[in-house]
Amino acid sequence: MRTSPTVYEVAERAGVSTASVSRVLAGHDRVRQETRDKVMAAVTELGYVPRGAAQDLAGRRTAVLGLCFPDLVGDRDIARPGRARPDQEADTDAMYWYDEVIRGMERAARRSGYALLIAASHETDDANLVLTVAGRCDGLVVLAGTAPAETVEHVVARVPVVLLAAPPGIRVRGTVDHLGVANESGMHELTRHLLDTHGYTDLCFIAGPPDSADSASRYAGFRAALAERGLTERGLAAAGEPDLHGDFTAAGGAAVVTRLLQRGPVPRVLVCANDQTAIGAMSALRQAGLRVPEQVAVTGFDGVQVARHLSPGLTTVAQPMREIGEVAVSLLQQRIAESDRPAEEIQLPVRLEVRESCGCPAPAGRREDQ
Amino acid sequence: MRTSPTVYEVAERAGVSTASVSRVLAGHDRVRQETRDKVMAAVTELGYVPRGAAQDLAGRRTAVLGLCFPDLVGDRDIARPGRARPDQEADTDAMYWYDEVIRGMERAARRSGYALLIAASHETDDANLVLTVAGRCDGLVVLAGTAPAETVEHVVARVPVVLLAAPPGIRVRGTVDHLGVANESGMHELTRHLLDTHGYTDLCFIAGPPDSADSASRYAGFRAALAERGLTERGLAAAGEPDLHGDFTAAGGAAVVTRLLQRGPVPRVLVCANDQTAIGAMSALRQAGLRVPEQVAVTGFDGVQVARHLSPGLTTVAQPMREIGEVAVSLLQQRIAESDRPAEEIQLPVRLEVRESCGCPAPAGRREDQ
DNA sequence: TTGTATGCGTTATCAG
DNA sequence: CTGATAACGCATACAA
User: Fold this and answer.
1) Rounded distance between C-alpha atoms, residue B344 and residue B298, angstroms
2) Nucleotide nearest to A22 (CA to C1')
3) A183-319+352-369 is classed CATH 3.30.390.10
4) B35-CA/C16-C1' distance, Å
5) Distance (Å) from the C-alpha of residue A211 to the closest C-alpha of chain B?
6) Residue B11 phi/psi, 5° resolution?
7) Which of A67, A236, A342, B198 is 20 to 30 A from residue B122's alpha carbon, by CA?
8) Does domain A60-181+322-348 have CATH number 3.40.50.2300?
């Protein structure tokens, strides 16, 4: 292993003390220009890059924020080489939403001078990577489903944590801030649009996994809007329980539609628990020769980027990804500054994005892509 | 700032030495079960998470790999609040490809037990974040366009570096491995498909930014295929120079098509330098009432996930994202183990993905989404 | 303005 | 199997 230069070597070469090297690199004012030059020359010649570990240890702070998100598929595709391709597609396929979260966090972190340390893991994994990350950052964002509550509670003793999109029921002990979006009211608004603007009466909800709290909240909003108009949902399994469950992937959405097609006539509107599901649903409908939105309207939830490039454009409820990142970073910074601040619970508003998949006309004259 | 527990406190509470604590947490065998229990109890009670900085310093290794990629837009949207929305869309829009790279790297890193430290920056920025990252990882992947060559050369003294998608001309001094994909031959193959299978003769290339080496390589493959058939490209600016330049975003692709429409009849085939450009082009064509692929065929390059969900599905050349991540990690690990190994230059094969946007029939019976 | 000396929290070596 | 103790590389308070 090549042994990289240290402050000592730089100091020696520059003919100054290590303190001066440190000061120059930290951009302190109180150092003579000549000293500065000597140091910089030595730094360049030696290819010196300060060891982050030492800086962090001495400075008692890292320049890093952490982000842990659920590993949806683990390495199943590796374990089952027999059908590698399908799995590969399915898993990356399900990542759209995480991509946006990662993006938003990276941007927000960077603006505050932090790099972002990311790792996926799953509740059922050993929590090793989560601890690795937690031990190396000044603040940590954990997406729901990433680690068991105990792990989060454990980690909170070490680093400020923001829990993202955690179900309202599952609250972690200890001082952790919770950040989420208005799932229920967002879906409520979307459903009202379908009911009032379009006058649809035959709608059906395609849920996510049965244990998904996000899906449940959105379903609640959907049901509430229906109830207000005295309507009932097509195809209800049990009282208040959606009948149709996808798994938040396009493949899942397509599969549900396939089943629906076998049962008989498809409802006039398919309200999907997230965008991927809607994408898969539209694809399956197209395969079956049904036109969207003329014969079947479809809507999503999340507002991932691809939604606007589909044809027809996907009507959906957009989460404020950028703002989520910003608020998460801000919460972390506040708690870094003042750790005993009471825990906050923030719910960010969502925005209805009407495109064509619900039956609305394409915006004339306007260009979606600019 | 809350002061988190240290080994000393854990050791004291458990009634053992710090060495034992360290051993237990490291999973060493040679420790009595009773000791192990005492330590784990103390760890849990105290919420102890080892400080990564100290571990890394003592262990001379981090559990982290770094990834630096170009910041396409910086914070322009922040600086110019006047037209915030359009910029916001444009910039995240251009991220698809990076998303896939990040994903692939995260997966590959995780499989090797590493977390991934990411940060965006641009050649024109100060290189601060790049140094921050470089100082905190055992290996670093740098995407082309992220940092000036000198910065990379500088950093190489400290940590193994893999340069991703760097133009063949721009090679960095020092021992850095280069990793890329077969841009030229991939585009050559795609073009031959258009020529031979479909018999098109009126094709036109929509390039990326004029200084993009990727775009240039792909253009070269395109031209070569045309030349083999004795064809010339529609709308050539200068000898060997593409006339139409987008900027690798959907907005750019749409803008090019808009200009094209004003000039007169659109070529039969638009071969785009990347997927985003193609997406924008298709969208603009649709707005203009032109049908894809019946009236105008369109193709892309990269194979981003959304390509398969569009309608028509986008015919494109797919980069092996997963493999890129895998190979990058592997190169890094090799060089960590043996730093004076000669630099490698690896070119990964690409794969033609035929869908409907080129004019091929939709695959019957097959379900794209499962 | 610059240099000296010490602490940061772990791991690992080496005795016991 | 366990316990002292010396690095690890840098930042900073303090002294000059």
Assistant:
1) 35
2) D11
3) no
4) 18
5) 22
6) -60, -45
7) A67
8) yes
